[in-house]
């Protein structure tokens, strides 16, 4: 197949040979304007809402690990931590805030790729940007834009991989396929459920390379090079965990978990011990009990997913399903490559949701939402295709302007998500700098991250020990510290002979009788 004819496969509606030069110029200008306004709107709406410092819960875990080159909770996210660490090196910027800004920018990249997919498939640029704003305003996507979490990073990697495959199909350049493999491999080693989408991305790769004789005739060799690129992130991840899983690392979740449960060997017990700890982390074995579901549980999850996309209402649900089906059928006709990519995003997300027994933020639906947005945009392009018509573009631009106004006005009114709750005021009240010398603080997981961050980075206090465990394990873990000052970050007292007395945002643990009971915050 010739280069010109191959390039016109899987191209934008305005990129074929039947499109005039003036139409292409209009398309390029409108695309640039729409993407610039999309970016400016997201940044203007979300930047003021970002947490200014370290957060509680998983968000604080990622911030702390990135700032210290540490090891967060399973599966460890070694690639994410390593990449985010570069942002924490910006002089004069709080490392935790730098991670929050990085996650926002990565989320913005996801939205821009969503718009780029649609525009290349013939969707009006302003209509594509409007859909992307609606995607951003979905409660789950919005929560991930304003909190430093791993989900937008995963989405950016896998949709970036898909977009690279599409560009490879259009240009025949091998570098795009190698980049696609590298991005997908990075997502996979950091977020194992991405594996469910691999067959679909391989199908997209197959459809893409068969358009180019220079690649098709050497398909096995090309696949081998792609596999090598996809394997490189695993080498990096193994090396990172191997080196950083050491007693000298400031923040190491593996050691925290092992101190509480004692299920793993120490990192200094040799190669076999290191290998066991690395496998435990990267495989997320700690959470293996959450996988698996009955048919009734699957139906419950599907109903929950329907609620998340607001499709439980019969009329609205039918409309959404029809819109997605029409869009997907149109995708299959216009670009089988993109159709396979979108199917992979949707299927991997739905399979993970149905067989992972947890709701909320951990049930990652961002890839599914992305797939729905691309299908919806493709369906709408049948009615509003890209065109140099000023009337048509004016109407689409007006709809985009309304979406911009809604985003800017409604964004600050939305409730904060729990994983993005800022801990700055909490740490100010704790005042780590003036804690008693040799203090031992017992805390739960959610409150431990800002305390670790303050002890390691904000006010270095190597004399202070922070124990992260369930309260029932506190007595065992503090036994070795003798008479050092003891504090608790949550009001759950596992000691019959001790009492809690308020101390700033903590509780001082004393050996007094009678016990004083203090209500929870």
Quick structural summary:
With 521 residues, this protein is mainly alpha-helical. It has helices spanning 3-8, 21-46, 57-68, 78-87, 95-120, 125-136, 139-145, 151-171, 174-190, 198-209, 213-216, 219-244, 253-261, 271-282, 295-308, 314-334, 336-355, 366-383, 390-410, 424-430, 445-458, 474-478; strands at residues 440-443, 465-468, 486-488, 499-503, 506-510.
Which helices and strands appear, and what pairs or packs with what?
Blueprint: H1 3-8, H2 21-46, H3 57-68, H4 78-87, H5 95-120, H6 125-136, H7 139-145, H8 151-171, H9 174-190, H10 198-209, H11 213-216, H12 219-244, H13 253-261, H14 271-282, H15 295-308, H16 314-334, H17 336-355, H18 366-383, H19 390-410, H20 424-430, E1 440-443, H21 445-458, E2 465-468, H22 474-478, E3 486-488, E4 499-503, E5 506-510
Parallel strand pairs: 1-2, 1-3
Antiparallel strand pairs: 3-5, 4-5
Shape: globular
Strand order of the largest sheet: 2-1-3-5-4
What is the strand tally? 5
Mean pLDDT, to the nearest integer, reads 88
């Amino acid at each position: 197949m010739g280069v010109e004819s191959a390039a016109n496969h899987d191209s934008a509606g305005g990129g074929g040979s039947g499109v005039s030069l003036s139409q292409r110029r209009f398309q390029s200008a409108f695309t640039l304007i729409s993407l610039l306004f999309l970016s400016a709107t997201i940044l203007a709406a979300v930047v003021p809402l970002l947490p200014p410092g370290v957060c509680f819960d998983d968000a604080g875990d990622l911030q702390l690990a990135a700032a210290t080159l540490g090891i967060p909770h399973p599966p460890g996210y070694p690639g994410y931590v390593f990449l985010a660490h570069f942002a924490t090196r910006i002089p004069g910027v709080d490392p935790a805030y730098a991670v929050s800004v990085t996650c926002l920018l990565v989320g913005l990249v996801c939205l821009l790729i969503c718009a780029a997919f649609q525009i290349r498939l013939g969707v009006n640029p302003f209509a594509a940007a409007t859909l992307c704003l609606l995607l951003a305003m979905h409660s789950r996507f919005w929560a991930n834009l304003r909190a430093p979490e791993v989900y937008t990073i995963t989405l950016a990697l896998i949709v970036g991989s898909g977009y690279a495959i599409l560009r490879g199909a259009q240009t025949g350049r091998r570098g795009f396929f190698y980049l696609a493999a590298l991005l997908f491999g990075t997502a996979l080693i950091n977020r194992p459920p991405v594996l469910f989408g691999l067959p679909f991305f391989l199908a997209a790769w197959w459809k893409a390379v068969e358009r180019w004789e220079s690649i098709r005739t050497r398909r096995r060799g090309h696949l081998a090079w792609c596999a090598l690129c996809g394997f490189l992130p695993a080498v990096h991840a193994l090396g990172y965990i191997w080196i950083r899983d050491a007693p000298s690392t400031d923040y190491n979740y593996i050691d925290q978990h092992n101190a509480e449960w004692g299920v793993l060997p120490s990192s200094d017990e040799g190669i076999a011990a290191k290998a066991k700890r690395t496998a435990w982390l990267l495989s997320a074995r700690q959470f293996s009990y959450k996988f698996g579901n009955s048919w009734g549980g699957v139906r419950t999850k599907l109903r929950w997913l329907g609620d998340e996309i607001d499709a439980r209402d019969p009329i609205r649900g039918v409309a959404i399903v029809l819109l997605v089906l029409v869009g997907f059928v149109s995708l299959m006709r216009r670009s089988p490559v993109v159709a396979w990519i979108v199917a992979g995003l949707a299927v991997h997300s739905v399979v993970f949701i149905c067989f992972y027994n947890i709701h909320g933020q951990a049930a990652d639906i961002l890839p599914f939402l992305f797939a729905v947005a691309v299908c919806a945009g493709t369906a709408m392009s049948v009615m509003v295709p890209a065109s140099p018509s000023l009337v048509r573009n004016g109407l689409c631009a007006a709809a985009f302007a309304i979406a911009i106004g809604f985003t800017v006005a409604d964004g600050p009114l939305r409730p904060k998500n729990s994983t993005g709750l800022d801990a700055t005021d909490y740490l100010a009240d704790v005042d780590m700098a003036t804690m008693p010398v040799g203090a031992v603080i017992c805390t739960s997981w959610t409150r431990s991250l800002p305390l670790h961050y303050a002890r390691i980075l904000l006010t270095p206090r190597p004399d202070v020990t922070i124990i992260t465990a369930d309260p029932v394990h506190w007595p065992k873990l503090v036994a070795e510290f003798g008479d050092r000052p003891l504090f608790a970050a949550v009001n759950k007292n596992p000691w019959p002979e001790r009492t809690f007395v308020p101390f700033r945002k903590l509780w001082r643990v004393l050996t007094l009788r009678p016990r004083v009971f203090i209500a929870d915050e």
